[in-house]
Design goal:
Elements (H helix, E strand, L loop, with lengths): L5 E7 L3 H16 L8 E5 L14 E2 L6 H16 L1 H4 L1 E2 L3 E5 L4 H13 L4 E5 L1 H12 L10 E5 L3 E3 L1 H14 L3 E4 L3 E7 L2 E7 L2 E10 L5 H7 L5 E5 L5 E6 L2 E10 L16 E6 L3 E2 L6 E3 L3 E8 L4 E10 L20 H14 L17 E5 L6 E6 L2 E5 L10 H9 L14 H4 L14
Parallel strand pairs: 1-2, 1-12, 2-9, 5-16, 12-23
Antiparallel strand pairs: 3-8, 4-8, 5-7, 6-7, 10-11, 11-12, 13-14, 15-20, 15-21, 16-19, 17-18, 19-20, 22-23
The structure holds flavin-adenine dinucleotide.
Amino acid sequence: MSFPANYKYVIIGAGIHGLSTAYHLAKELKQKKVGSGKDILVIDKAAIGAGASGIACGIIRNNYFQPAMRELMAHSVALWEEDAKGYGYHPIGYMQISCESMHADVAEIHKQQQEIGYDSLFIEGEKECLKYMRENIFHDWQAKNITSVLHELKGGYAHNTKSLYRLADKAESEGVRILTGVKVTGLKTDNNSVTAVETQKGNIKCDYVIIGAGPWAKSFWNMLDLPDQIDIKDNDGNIHKNVDMWTYWGLVEGTLGVSPDYAMNNAGNMPPVIHIDTDAPLYSSEDGSLITDKMWGIYYKPDFHFGGVQGGAAPYIVKGEVRVDPYGIDSPDFVVGPDFVHMWTSALAHCQKRYENKYQNYKNEPSGGLGAFTPDNFPVFDTMKDNCYMILDSNHGYKMIGIGKLIAKEITGEKQSLLKPFRFERYAKGELHPVSNSPFPWS
Ligand SMILES: Cc1cc2nc3c(=O)[nH]c(=O)nc-3n(C[C@H](O)[C@H](O)[C@H](O)COP(=O)(O)OP(=O)(O)OC[C@H]3O[C@@H](n4cnc5c(N)ncnc54)[C@H](O)[C@@H]3O)c2cc1C
């Protein structure tokens, strides 16, 4: 097939958002009898899953302090459930296990989950939490200072590449063309519209462009001459001037090389994904030294794809010049080091007796990656030119498989109330999302 000179819809990025949008847009066009998948081209400079979607540990949860995020997640979980087998989705549930400083926030999350019909249980009190964990999940649970447990009965995790290839297959079966190895170098604009996508192999004229570039969001932001810094009105009406539009965080994740079977629950089955945040002092499982007496958090799950117990800890802000490429495990800068390994394996031992003395099983292979975050750390889903939709998920997004479906509806003329709280104008209007007491920027 020759290199295309024009396409009605060009989608940049073959990650979870680009592929989900491609598939759902193809279906919308067909259903509305205004086109088909043959009108859609997906391009990626590398390959399907070459970005954050291909290294995401795949956790899918509803646990968000922000009502708008929760509604969006409930929508996405329903999509994961539609084709669980095809996407490699494991609906094992998710647990937010917290110390007292997060108790009230999580109680509110649970209350609102009940209101939107999202199944979850809430356990309160130190003794009750310990009992619940030991009797229902892990007999060797021993984490300290835990006063609430939110047990989401839906959600879990999915196998990252399986879900991406499933989406790609679905899109292609609707007639979408996916072209990899094509790097976008610029966007030609006229007035407030993108007229062509410039690539190393030639220009592609288009009527509409959708950008789902994950950690590369900033380079597309620059191609569209959008501002590096913006003014933000907070919820009290104060104006914060010249706030950086983009901040990079380093995500720290890794795998303990034990058999996933070693991590099963009391009944011998896959346990829910565990996320714990606590202010209990964390001591080294190697030498007993104090690692931190400040709030810390980790998440983990047995994962046959990663070959062990896979998880991570709170990310860190990357200062100074950031090289996004080479990305992921090929990056010389953004893979985890010994500090993460020490902390995370010790935290596992803090949570469950079975991980005491297991730190030496840590798999020493490159892991972790970079995420591009917006000023309030929440997504922006919006048209930044008349015919250019930007999916700026602020690194929340593998779990958000349903965003592409909502965006496909918007592009074909149906505004989506679920997306309204995620417009760029919220920064100027002072309509920010509420902020939780979690140590993670994505809760
Ligand atoms: C280590 C790590 C763990 C994570 N774990 C989770 C998790 O458990 N759950 C969760 O929900 N989220 C998780 N996330 C976040 C999630 O992975 C991202 O939010 C999401 O995958 C972003 O998807 P995307 O489609 O926007 O971008 P990506 O998947 O990054 O895809 C963007 C694509 O754009 C292409 N591209 C970039 N520039 C160009 C160009 N110039 N021309 C052409 N193509 C280009 C890239 O090659 C890439 O394939 C994690 C992120 C990281 C880094």
